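for the recovery benchmark. tokens below, seq after
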């Protein structure tokens, strides 16, 4: 099959200015809840895009762990590629794609680390194997094989037993949104696309973009 011939008609829903929330966070929470209730596979999965000092962009999929008026939170290794790139350039973009609902949410903004208290609280809520894994994996580094990870996990498991502390190189990030985009697939490629831009007074300007 020629991949250029793969097509789908999007006809499940619509997104109008009158029905959408004035606050983009409320709109996002609504769509996220609908994705969860609709049993979309991994509705909490999001793509994080960063840009390195070489101006080359990179993306990866992580899991959202919190959202409120302060921003969108996820946790990772600060020494990973994304951690190094965020240290040099704190601007990033997020994307959620809920295929079954024919929806996409894009979020752009500046990223900061969450507090040590927040990182500690989340770290200690994780399963034991995941906490050991945070010590065992030198994320984004070249390793000789999977045996390195297994050996590291055994070493740190024996060292910390049931109480591994949070590694100093591991914790949370929070993206503070400056722009949101909500995309709803529509028939004939005339999709609905609403953008919210943060204004100087803290309000949100809602605009319709051509698809």
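predicted aa per position
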């Amino acid at each position: 099959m020629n991949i250029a011939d793969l097509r789908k008609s999007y006809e499940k829903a619509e997104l109008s200015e009158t029905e959408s929330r004035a606050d983009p966070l409320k709109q996002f929470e609504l769509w996220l809840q609908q994705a969860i209730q609709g049993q979309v596979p991994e509705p909490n999965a999001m793509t994080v895009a960063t840009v390195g000092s070489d101006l080359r962009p990179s993306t990866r999929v992580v899991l959202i762990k919190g959202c409120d008026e302060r921003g969108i939170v996820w946790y990772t290794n600060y020494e990973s590629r994304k951690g190094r790139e965020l240290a040099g350039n704190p601007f990033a973009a997020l994307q959620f794609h809920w295929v079954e609902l024919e929806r996409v949410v894009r979020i752009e903004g500046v990223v900061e680390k969450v507090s040590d208290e927040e990182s500690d609280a989340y770290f200690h809520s994780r399963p034991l194997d995941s906490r050991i894994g945070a010590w065992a994996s030198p994320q984004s580094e070249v390793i000789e094989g999977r045996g390195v990870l297994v050996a590291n996990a055994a070493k740190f498991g024996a060292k910390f037993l049931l109480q591994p502390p949070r590694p100093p190189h591991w914790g949370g990030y929070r993206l503070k949104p400056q722009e949101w985009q909500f995309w709803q697939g529509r028939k004939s490629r005339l999709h609905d696309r609403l953008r919210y831009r943060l204004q100087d007074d803290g309000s949100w300007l809602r605009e319709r973009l051509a698809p």
